[in-house]
Amino acid sequence: MRFLAVLFTVFWLLPAQGVRADVPKELVEDLVDGNVIPAYRAFEAKTGALADAVTTACAGGALATDAVKAAFAEAWLAWAGARHVVKGPVTFFDRQFRIQFWPDSRNRIERALIDLRSVGGTPDIASAAVGVQGFPALERLIYEGKGVDDCFIARPIAANLHTMAGEILTEWTEGDSPFRKALVAPGSGAGVYFTYSESLTALMTGATASLEGILRLRLKRPLGEESGHARPNRAEAWRSELSMDLVRADLAAVADFYHGGAEAPEESRGLDAALRRSGETELADLMTKAFRITRETADKVDRPLSAAVVDPAMQPVLDELVTQVSALKALIVQKVGPAIGIAGGFNAMDGD
């Protein structure tokens, strides 16, 4: 807890920053080319491997093979590496919800799967109910399904995930007006954004929304509102036991975003470099340390989140993680944003 005391002390002692007006082009390029597009490339590749693994397993008369489970985990973790991006092609045609419809408080996924099983025949998954098109539905088929008998649904779901991943990547990078251009050349005619400040706000909205998602949905939801009222089956991906791995992937993605995809600790890129160029070395050092300590705390949760939330021994670690993620979000919104050119309060989940 010593880190938290230092963090909050430094946080409140740092001088308030006025909003800078000179968001540099290289900062937006760092974030897009160093983090966003590589994340989508990884997502496209891993969903392709998943589709191949499901096809191979089903051809061999099975579904829940070790190869399928491994490919499924890698693909979902790759999605966690990209879901801090909340603007652009991922929002077209409701793709973000089709990729992962969750939370599913009304059990719509199970009902949609029952409907598909009753109809039979290879379904047109892309036109099916939103909840049955992505990872949560495929997870149920792999971990709770009917084996090879569910392949007629599992194959098109895996193929649909790969198709959407490919479409998102293509729309970011190819054509006369790729979404990349809308961000790195605002006001160029690609539409959507007209200044680098608007581009940066759109990108940082996703980073803060991802941290809020970790807090509100991935940690607090299964932890319960009160001590002793944990709801382990409210954890994300509890069937596949990927819940805590996905939290770690989310944190890694936001950290990579902040650092602009820097590959070495001594390399300064992205928001870290922007702060240092602006003379905000103390804040940059604090952010680097905050990301490191928060991720180290997440690593201390050595079991699936569905198991950790009902283990009293893990409660202090989870409480600390909640506090640290909350502090990270506050630092980005209230300190980092104004210091590099945008006002606080940018959060896609506010008011939801």
Order of helices and strands: HHHHHHHHHHHHHH
Radius of gyration: 21 Å
Oligomer: single chain
Q: Roughly how much helix do the residues carry, as a percent range?
A: 55-70%
- Please give the number of β-strands: 0
Q: Helical element count?
A: 14
Secondary structural class: mainly alpha
Shape: globular
* Mean pLDDT over the residues: 91
Enumerate the spans where pLDDT stays under 50 for 5 or more consecutive residues.
Answer: none
* Separation of the first and last Cα atoms: 31 Å
Strand count, sense and barrel status of the largest sheet are: none
* Tally of structural domains: 2
Proportion of residues in β-strands: under 5%
GO cellular component, one term: cell envelope
Signal peptide: 1-21
Main location: other
InterPro entries: Imelysin-like, Imelysin-like_IPPA, Imelysin_sf
Descriptive labels:
globular, 2 domains, 62% helix, 352 residues, mainly alpha, A middle domain of Talin 1
